[in-house]
Design brief:
The chain is α/β, with parallel strands linked by helices. It is built from twelve helices and nine strands. The protein has one domain (2-305): NAD(P)-binding Rossmann-like Domain (Rossmann fold, 3-Layer(aba) Sandwich), CATH 3.40.50. The chain has helices at 13-22, 38-43, 58-62, 80-98, 118-131, 148-158, 177-187, 208-219, 230-240, 247-253, 270-276, 286-313; strands at residues 2-6, 26-31, 46-49, 67-70, 102-106, 137-142, 162-166, 196-200, 224-228. The longest helix is centred in the C-terminal third of the chain and has 28 residues, at 286-313.
Length: 318
């Protein structure tokens, strides 16, 4: 299948590209810069220069494309409404005009519940626009990436830095982006997924304290935790919304409202696994993911320490 991946340089997008190539698809990636997507070309994907916010660049990229997987979202420096709304509408319209037969959209779990959070509202509105477009679509709605735990918890603990934890944050059922990519590629050839939406959640929801304790156990190191009051974030969000330069910051800070509350961010997955014919035992757990990560890192650190000790014992010639 000739497949166009949007957002192929991102955390999830690159795993979708890798999975699609491994399964024999002819993969194209829409990129703003060939330099940024160089690693995708090395894997075997073909790069097409284009921009969601420049609609004239989309028809050439979609020529002959049978399926689109849209895993793109605005970068921190981008305006959310320009990329995640205007850009996605441009893409959906262009895909319809090009006769694309399958369209997979990566949204966010429970987007419809947060109309006051810009990104969530935009994702929900995009879902509705896609459903009304006439395209054969599948919407996947993950709630959190396992990869995000590395920068937030693992690295600070290894480097003996402080960890910031938001008071009142809800537990989240994280899923490996490699597993999410598996669902995305499986949707392309599964008629049971056409014109339907599916949640994607890990085996169970984890709160920040549980993850920190797990990291401490796996590394044998203690952590320094700092608590951030939700009220402080809300104040900053309100202040930045008063100034044009702070609108993008305010929009992103508003997302904190999504992860606050006693209700875990998770969803039942039995029907999803059955529909996609995927064995839940094959899905990476938080324990497995962090365990493998720390195992590799600790092994590397031991090798580096050994090399240093060996070098220091070596006599220097005079």
């Amino acid at each position: 299948m000739k497949l166009l991946v949007i957002g192929g340089t991102g955390t999830l997008g690159r795993q979708i590209v890798r999975r699609a190539l491994d399964e024999g698809h002819e993969v194209y990636c829409l990129v703003r810069s060939f330099q940024r997507g160089g690693f995708l070309r090395e894997w075997g994907a073909q790069l097409l220069r284009g921009n969601l916010c420049a609609p004239q660049t989309l028809p050439p990229a979609l020529e002959g494309v049978e399926a689109v997987i849209d895993a793109a979202t605005a970068r921190p420096t981008d305006a959310i409404d320009k990329v995640d709304w205007d850009g996605k509408l441009n893409l959906i319209k262009a895909a319809k005009a090009a006769g694309v037969s399958r369209y997979v959209f990566i949204s966010i779990l429970d987007a419809e519940k947060y109309p006051d959070v810009p990104l969530m509202n935009i994702k929900h509105c995009t879902e509705k626009f896609l459903a009304d477009s006439g395209l054969n679509y599948t919407i996947l709605r993950p709630c959190g990436f396992l990869q995000g735990l590395i920068g937030q918890y693992a690295i600070p603990i290894l480097e003996k830095q402080g960890i910031w934890v938001m008071n009142g944050a809800a537990p989240i059922a994280y899923m490996n982006t490699q597993d999410i990519a598996r669902f995305a590629i499986a949707a392309l050839s599964n008629d049971d997924t056409v014109n339907r939406s599916f949640p994607l959640a890990g085996s169970r929801a984890w709160d920040a304290n549980e993850i920190i304790r797990l990291c401490e156990r796996l590394t044998g190191q203690s952590s320094r935790v700092s608590r951030m009051p939700l009220g402080l974030l809300r104040t900053v969000q309100k202040l930045t919304s008063y100034f044009e330069w702070g609108w993008n910051i305010a929009d992103r800070l508003a997302f904190t409202e999504v992860v606050v509350g006693e209700e875990p961010m998770t969803a039942p997955m039995d029907e999803v696994y059955g529909t996609f014919h995927i064995n839940p035992e094959d899905i990476t757990t938080v324990e497995e993911y962090l365990g493998e990560y720390f195992s590799r890192i600790m092994k590397k650190l031991k090798e580096l320490n050994y090399d240093r000790e060996k070098a220091s014992k070596k006599k220097l010639p005079f």
